Input
Amino acid sequence: MELWDFKYLRRGDADYEKARCGAVWNGRVPDRYPELIVYPQQDSHVQSIVCYAREHGMTIGTKSGGHSWTASFLRDGGIFVDLAHMNHFSFDVQQRIAVAQPAAYGSDLNAALVPHDLMFPGGHCPTVGLGGFLLQGGFGWNSRKWGVACESVLAIDVVTATGELIHASAYEHTDFFWAARGAGCGYFGLITKFYLKLHTLPHGIMTARYVFEIDDFDEVLTAVDSVSEQVLPDLEIGFFVARDQDGFVGRPTLALTADALSDTEEEARRALGLLHNLPVFSKTIKSFPYISCTLKQMLQRFDDILDNRGRRYEANNLWADVPVQMLLPTFHNIIDALPAAPSHLYTMWWLPNKERPEMAFSMEARLYIALYAISVDPKDDQPNGKYVVDSMVPMNEYKKGIQLADENLPAAPGMFMKMRNFSKLENLRHKHDREGRFYGYIRLPEEFERAMAVL
Ligand SMILES: Cc1cc2nc3c(=O)[nH]c(=O)nc-3n(C[C@H](O)[C@H](O)[C@H](O)COP(=O)(O)OP(=O)(O)OC[C@H]3O[C@@H](n4cnc5c(N)ncnc54)[C@H](O)[C@@H]3O)c2cc1C
Output
């Protein structure tokens, strides 16, 4: 008997494994096998899937862009809803609002917005789906100035655990709206549309990249950290340490990047000048200062660094509220053991600078540190997985929490929101998804497990 008149696959069908693996951006696909893979095309399809799951006591995992490093949407048994076909968007230039389905890419939305002098703070990598990106917070272009991208979500359409389609915002169905801005891979509904606030396109987009020898690592980072209080909100500074980057084959180097999305080039130059004028920057072995570019070029640059679809990624991350100097000894141990390119250590001076609205998202700190071990060989999975977890352990004493964007909850769970917010989220889950129709977090840190026990 046919279950639906839109595409779906049962476990055991000829195309099942191709569909299961093809849904995962990461080349390392976990051994988790849903009973059904379903491809809805519209909201009513999603409703009928949820009703079916309810009748048959099944649990639902949802994928938008498939970029979760851990493929958090893939679970054993249950229904895997692949929203691949729900990737459309529209926008109103006068109202400065876009309506996007979850599998739309921020880069496609921005490509359409730019000619209208508008922009949305989509992810740095062009192929991240808006769905998962917005749910976990969303560290997008100009997010230091405009806020994490979920702050620009005005409303959502969501199918609840009972199969009802509701519109949630700060004014109606507020529980669903509160949770949708930060719950990430543990949300208790299935979002079918995001209503997004659009921003004026910055006209001073400039980037800079400075490459240094690892011998100068401590001096460079200490100097940058010393001026961090003066970093303007429209400037994002980070660094990559990787082998073979910028033509320096065989050894790791430090590449410091600075991106300014300012209103004018003059302002961008002023923002970037803060770094450029630091005396230690004379030690650079290669530099690309003050490069004017378009948003499209910025996205392309990140695509070249990060979008190695099909490679096997192991990721781990943490937030730390300390001066960068405290982390230097651990950074050196991480760099000494860094696997082959394009594996990399990434750190961003996030430097939170604005009040956030009341929402589930609540974990951030001045420094964001992420470690990625990348390979094409399945034999490297185990050592790489161990490396990204073990080598960050010495930083635990400074760890405030983790980011869900780069979560590795199965191997390295950490607090991804404030305890108060987590308790509220779990109370809301109990209220709105009592039967657990939607998979929650794959694993929780001990602190949250303890909180669950007393809820
Ligand atoms: C190459 C690369 C670059 C990245 N760059 C950035 C970046 O610049 N900034 C940043 O913040 N993050 C970044 N990330 C992390 C990324 O934002 C998260 O992995 C995010 O989850 C990806 O969104 P997605 O739609 O592809 O997620 P998916 O993998 O499709 O979904 C992740 C989880 O979100 C939930 N979910 C997804 N869609 C829905 C829905 N419609 N309704 C309910 N629940 C849903 C599910 O629990 C799912 O398991 C990057 C990741 C990669 C791989």
Summary: Residues 25, 62-68, 72-73, 83, 102, 123-125, 128-129, 131-133, 135-136, 138-140, 185, 187, 190-191, 306-307, 405 surround flavin-adenine dinucleotide (CB under 6 Å). The first helix runs from residue 16 to 22. The longest strand covers residues 252-262. The chain has four domains: 8-82, 89-200, 204-401, 419-454.
